């Protein structure tokens, strides 16, 4: 505002020149504002690499009370909106309040804290690339993933993948994925 007042206060024979200059500057500032807002929306909408849901199979369950303990533990996570249980398969399907807030280690810890282990963990996610290439690193929800494949494979979105790390622990900060 001070910058614009400076141009309007100046009274001289060049006042028209200052007025023209201030209008051009104002147009540039407005244009920059639109560009910054547009860039923000483009980056936020193009970052579609998100975990949509997680299905895990727990091991060591012997009764329905075991299943209920895991259900309570997973439901208590602040980013989980819904947990569906299949007692016969010992599987749990998790839906999330916001796909950007999924914390894999908290899901793993919730099952372990209930006294059980995870046999498999499968993610359904939108990946940023249309092709999975062996040992290519993919960033997803703040995590680093690598494809554990024999070759490359085309990906449809959303894609179901399985984390193959032992005990769902990252190896050197990386989770390995397979189809």
What does this structure look like?
This protein has 179 residues and is an alpha+beta fold. It has two domains: 2-46, no CATH class; 50-178, Alpha-Beta Plaits, CATH 3.30.70.100. Helix content is 35%, strand content 31%. It has four helices and ten strands, in the order ααβαββαβββββββ. The longest helix is centred in the first third of the chain and has 32 residues, at 15-46. The chain is globular and about 75 Å long. Residues 1-14 and 39-48 have low confidence and may be disordered.
Order of helices and strands: HHEHEEHEEEEEEE
CATH class of the largest domain: Alpha Beta
Let me know the average pLDDT.
Answer: 78
Number of strands: 10
> How many angstroms separate the termini?
57 Å
- Using only C-alpha atoms, the radius of gyration works out to 26 Å
Largest sheet: 8 strands, mixed
Shape: globular
Could you say what the CATH topology of the largest domain is called?
Alpha-Beta Plaits
CATH hierarchy: architecture of the largest domain: 2-Layer Sandwich
Unreliably modeled segments? 1-14, 39-48
Sequence of strands across the biggest β-sheet: 2-3-1-4-9-10-7-6
Q: Kindly state the percentage of residues in helix.
A: 25-40%
Structural class, from helix and strand content? alpha+beta
């Amino acid at each position: 505002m001070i910058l614009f007042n400076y141009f309007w206060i100046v009274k001289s024979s060049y006042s028209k020149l200052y007025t023209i200059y201030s209008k051009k500057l104002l147009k540039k500032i407005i244009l920059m504002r639109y560009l910054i807002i547009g860039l923000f929306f483009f980056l936020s909408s193009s970052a579609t690499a998100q975990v949509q849901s997680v299905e895990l199979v727990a091991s060591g369950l012997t009764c329905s009370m075991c299943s209920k303990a895991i259900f309570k533990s997973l439901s208590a996570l602040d980013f989980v909106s819904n947990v569906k249980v299949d007692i016969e398969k010992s599987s749990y399907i998790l839906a999330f309040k916001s796909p950007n807030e999924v914390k894999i280690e908290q899901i793993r810890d919730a099952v372990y804290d209930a006294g059980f282990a995870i046999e498999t963990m499968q993610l359904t996610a939108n990946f940023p690339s249309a092709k999975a290439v062996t040992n290519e690193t993919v960033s997803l929800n703040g995590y680093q993933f690598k494809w554990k494949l024999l070759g490359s494979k085309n990906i449809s979105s959303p894609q179901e993948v399985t984390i193959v790390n032992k005990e769902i622990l990252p190896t050197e900060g990386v989770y390995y994925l397979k189809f």
